Amino acid sequence: MKTLVVVAHPDIENSVINRKWLTELRKYPELYTVHELYRAYPDWRIDVAKEQQLLEAHDNIVLQFPIFWFSSPPLLKKWLDDVLTYGWAYGSGSGYRMQGRKVALAVTAGIRAEDYAQDGRYKYPLEEIFRPFEVTANYVRADYAPFFAFYGAESASDSAAAQLSGQDIERSAADYRAFIAALN
Asked: Where is the Flavodoxin-like fold domain (predicted)?
């Protein structure tokens, strides 16, 4: 079954890394369904039934986003709140439709990896910062997988973009695809 990549980037046109990742995944439409939330819902009115059907049609779900204030962009949070409903994602009746599906994160961090270390600038590793995503996946009985991260994206987005080479960006896209392939 194909992997669903739910992309929550409010400014994908000006993204370097996230846009490159999408370009790479779109080369393989037989393997990946790319679903861009900000394009699908510019008015933030989420079609819950459509989203639930999309999730049910995939065994692996990857949530791809740039880190915003040590979490996800707000539309992804709204999507989770709206789509993972009682009776569908958890609870009595026909709940737990996410059960057994792998859920992973793919994120771009504006800062360096060492800043997310216990002795770094922010004092918490991404594993800790993303704990709410892990708890959510566990709550709906999904299989939470490790995350994929690209660090230093802020330096890639300024026009100088000098700190990241084209090779680094290309390699990140290939590594991202390998990460997703390993979910199976």
From this structure: 1-162
Long-range CB contacts (within 8 A, 24+) of 23-26: 23/173, 24/173, 24/174, 24/176, 24/177, 25/176, 25/177, 25/180
Structure tokens at 67: 């880190």
Query: DSSP per residue over 64-78, as a string?
Result: EEE-BTTB--HHHHH
Please tell me the pTM assigned to this model: 0.92
Q: Which amino acid is at 169?
A: I
Label the pairing between strands 148-151 and 143-144: unpaired
> How do residues 72-93 score in pLDDT, each as one tens digit?
999 999 999 999 999 999 998 7
The pair of structure tokens assigned to 50 is 């459509």
63 secondary structure, DSSP code? E
